[in-house]
Design brief:
The chain has about 210 residues and is α+β, with helices and mostly antiparallel strands. Helices cover about 35% and strands about 25% of the residues. The chain has helices at about 1-20, 30, 50-55, 70-75, 125, 140-150, 170-180, 185-190, 195-205; strands spanning about 20-25, 35-40, 40-45, 60-65, 80-85, 85-90, 95, 100, 105-110, 115-120, 155-160, 165-170. The strands form three sheets. An eight-stranded antiparallel beta sheet has the order 2-1-5-6-9-10-11-12. Strands 3-4 form a two-stranded antiparallel ribbon. The longest helix is centred in the N-terminal third of the chain and has 18 residues, at about 1-20. The protein is globular, with a radius of gyration of 20 Å. The model is unreliable at about 1-20, about 130-140 and about 140-145 (pLDDT under 50).
């Protein structure tokens, strides 16, 4: 009987713990301080390529079924959402230089006390090692937009500055700085030919 009671309480508290993993953060300050509101009804959906092509924006849509008010809050005002161990940043709140990322949520990586998020490349710095070698590079803001439009399937990493809220592109040069004290990884990084998320992400996960 005691074993059954123990199992019941274990399952009960496991259920409560699972619910507590859905947390919404209203601001950058709240995210940094880990001061959010616990909810239990979030739906996280990966957006289709067709939607991203047609409307732009980030990879994930987060909403609440049959609660349009909460869904609007998540879309427009919420800063970040944590679901289990996964963190998502609202790209509507993010800026890279003069560029906007658009709507919806980007997946984030938390490592070594820093936050990085995976989003589409913006501007010539972020696209320089992503565009095909035979692609025509156009200058200016319009040229940046045209160049980036051909990269809707590509992703790069940005760091979220936890003080200013600004996004910093994680280039090879910046990644090299982050790997200070890890010369073997720095040497391996120098051999890479791309700054795409799949490449840079391997090194971000090894930060200390």
């Amino acid at each position: 009987m005691k074993n059954y009671c123990f199992l019941f309480f274990l399952l009960f508290f496991s259920f409560l713990s699972a619910e507590a993993q859905q947390i919404i953060y209203p601001s950058l300050k709240a995210l940094v301080e880990e001061r959010g509101d616990t909810v239990t009804t979030l739906r996280v959906e990966r957006r289709t390529k067709n939607l991203i092509y047609a409307m732009g924006g980030a990879d994930y849509r987060i909403s609440v079924d049959e609660n349009s008010g909460m869904s609007r809050y998540l879309r427009s005002r919420c800063y970040a959402v944590r679901v289990d161990t996964a963190l998502y940043l609202n790209c509507k709140k993010m800026r890279y230089q003069r560029y906007r990322f658009g709507k919806w949520y980007a997946p984030a990586l938390e490592v070594a006390g820093r936050v990085f998020f995976r989003a589409h490349p913006l501007g010539q710095e972020a696209t320089r090692n992503i565009l095909p070698v035979d692609a025509t590079k156009l200058g200016g803001e319009l040229g940046d937009a045209i160049n980036a439009s051909g990269l809707v399937d590509e992703r790069v990493y940005y760091e979220l500055d936890l003080e200013s809220g600004k996004a910093v592109f994680v280039s090879k040069e910046y990644m090299h700085q982050l790997l200070a004290g890890q010369p073997a990884l720095q040497d391996k990084l120098e051999e890479e030919q791309s700054e795409a998320a799949d490449v840079i992400g391997k090194y971000l996960k090894q930060l200390k």
